[in-house]
Amino acid sequence: MQSLMPPRAPWRGRLVVLAGIVLVGLNLRIAVAAVSPIIGVVREDVALSDAQVGLLGTVPVAAFAVFGSLATPVARRLGLEPSLILALLLSMTGELLRALAGSAPAFIGWSVLALGGLGMGNVLLPPLVKRYFPDRIGTVTASYSVAMSVSAAVPPLVALPVAQAVGWRWSVGMWAVLGFAAVVPWVVVVAQSVSARSHLRTLVRRAPRSERPAVLVRAGAAESRLVRRSGLAWALVLTFFANTTCTYVLFAWLPEILADAGLGADAGGRWLAVFAILGLPASLVSPVLTARMRNPYPLVVGFAACWVAGLLGLMLAPAHGTAVWMILLGIGPGTFPIMLALIGLRSRTPAIAVALSGMVQGLGYALAVVGPVGIGVLHVATGSWEAPFLVLLGLVGLLLVAGWFACRPTMLGPEPMTGSVPFQA
């Protein structure tokens, strides 16, 4: 079947793809992080109520869940690369239109669109890494995980100064430029692949039907069924859910926790930035180590230990040793890039990686939606932060149990056919 190989495979220019992956990573948290630092300014202009501000806190996880679940069927129909371009265009549109919003419902609605596009991007990146970099999954996952950490850490530092200088609308809308920059390399990739796809299809049509490679059949619902029946997939879902819930609860409530401890609202904001920035080293190291280890569960145990120590410290002595607790809590979410890497490492094909990424991130974020709201309700009901912290510690226990199953060295999907063409139409 070597005669069916096109002279130029569509993934040959991998530097362009790498640039596209990293640029998408730089967009994946901006729409979340760009608004909260200036929400006080925004609500004065578009009359956001307290309830609507609280709703905005749940929109990111909910949008990631809903649109992330849609990414798999969309990719099945359009293909990975066009679907990613669509996701970026949706996010750019939402960012620009919410910057022009004149009412609270419009601002919230366009925020859903902006975050929904990013939710699709969350799901599509792991299978793209699997498709173009099957030999460098850990390194490339680390690259875009670091970019995601940057996209969460930078906006809080510049959003308020820009809003004070030129207005909140510019501060919210300017990030769409990064979305446009991320679209460009993927347009190049799609354009370059057209001739290769056409050439390959011509060769396949000329070949005897019995010799046509099965891999050319577009991925369908079979991969989704395979993933849904997999214990590995469900273990990844639960691990992702536990880690994501703990992370987003701290993003939502950390300033108030520290303010209630007597440190003040300003200190809470600064420590929240530290919490986000400390994700950088973990994002850089953990995917690379995951790819090199047969079973990366020791890494999960290490990050879970950071979660436990940080949560206990923040619960028992929030005003004493705060720096230590925040460093530990900043390192704890390092399980997240491990799960992203495992999506590609445990999938035999990009089609399976699409289905697995959609299930893990779609369901994981859907389950995590109740986290920030539920913790807030529990805090109000009990009048303290002790019960919420105990819930978070229970989630870390779930992370440890599910992570053991998620990290086992098993592969999802049948063995590839010998001599098949590594190309998906």
Automatic annotation (TrEMBL):
Pfam families, alphabetized: MFS_1
Sorted UniProt keywords: Membrane, Transmembrane, Transmembrane helix
The organism's place on the tree of life at top rank: Bacteria
Membrane-topology annotation of the record: Multi-pass membrane protein
Membrane-spanning residues: 53-72, 84-101, 107-125, 137-160, 172-191, 232-251, 271-290, 297-317, 323-345, 352-375, 387-407
Domain Major facilitator superfamily (MFS) profile, residue spans: 13-411
Any Gene Ontology CC annotation: plasma membrane
Gene3D superfamilies in alphabetical order: MFS general substrate transporter like domains (1.20.1250.20)
Subcellular location: Cell membrane
Principal place of residence: membrane
GO molecular function list: transmembrane transporter activity
Protein name stated in the entry: Putative MFS transporter
